[in-house]
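hiii so um. not sure if this is the right channel but i have a protein structure encoded as tokens and i wanna go backwards to a sequence. like what aa goes where. can anyone help
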């Protein structure tokens, strides 16, 4: 059985998409970022938590502050990407639950009154949303360079607060020269899927 999604779209989102390591200097506009969000906001999360928060790093001063916290191998590409996004989990997401999950507004207090429960839920669900975000960047015809090679605590202190946990930094733009490493192998279906 084939997929319903057009093969060209499958290639754009998955088969031909790769993590970009260089970018052109073509800007990424606010309209593009908003269009990405307007698409990916519909990806599912438990109780419709939507704990992902996106910090766009646009100014030169903020970019310099961020680059200082990146691992050495990630500094140059973060310094030169047209746009950089810090993706974080909002550990106080539960405050929005009565509006976001009106079918069960008591979920806020029943399941998420304790901070450790919120942190666990926020981390998992924001990671799901981060994956949607990367696919959304690809859907916009842009390339994403997601990275976890950075000083998490340094980025949190520099750009966030105690209620937000950084997940990843994503460079965004049109791919530049030699943007791709060779495609790495993937596991085969029978290595991943078990039927019981």
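sure thing!! here u go:
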């Amino acid at each position: 059985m084939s997929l319903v999604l057009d093969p060209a779209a499958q290639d754009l989102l998955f088969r031909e998409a790769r993590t970009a390591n260089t970018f052109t200097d073509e800007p990424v506009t606010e309209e593009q970022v908003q269009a990405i969000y307007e698409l990916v906001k519909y990806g599912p999360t438990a109780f419709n938590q939507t704990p992902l928060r996106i910090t766009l790093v646009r100014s030169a001063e903020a970019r310099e502050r961020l680059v200082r916290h990146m691992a050495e191998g990630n500094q140059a590409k973060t310094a030169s990407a047209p746009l950089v996004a810090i993706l974080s989990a909002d550990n106080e997401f539960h405050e929005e639950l009565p509006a976001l999950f009106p079918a069960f507004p008591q979920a806020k207090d029943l399941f998420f009154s304790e901070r450790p429960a919120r942190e666990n839920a926020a981390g998992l669900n924001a990671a799901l949303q981060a994956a949607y975000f990367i696919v959304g960047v690809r859907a916009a015809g842009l390339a994403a360079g997601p990275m976890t090679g950075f000083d998490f605590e340094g980025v949190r202190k520099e750009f966030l607060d105690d209620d937000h946990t950084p997940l990843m930094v994503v460079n965004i733009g049109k791919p530049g020269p030699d943007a791709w490493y060779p495609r790495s192998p993937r596991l085969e279906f029978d290595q991943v899927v078990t039927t019981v």
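oh and The mean pLDDT is 96.
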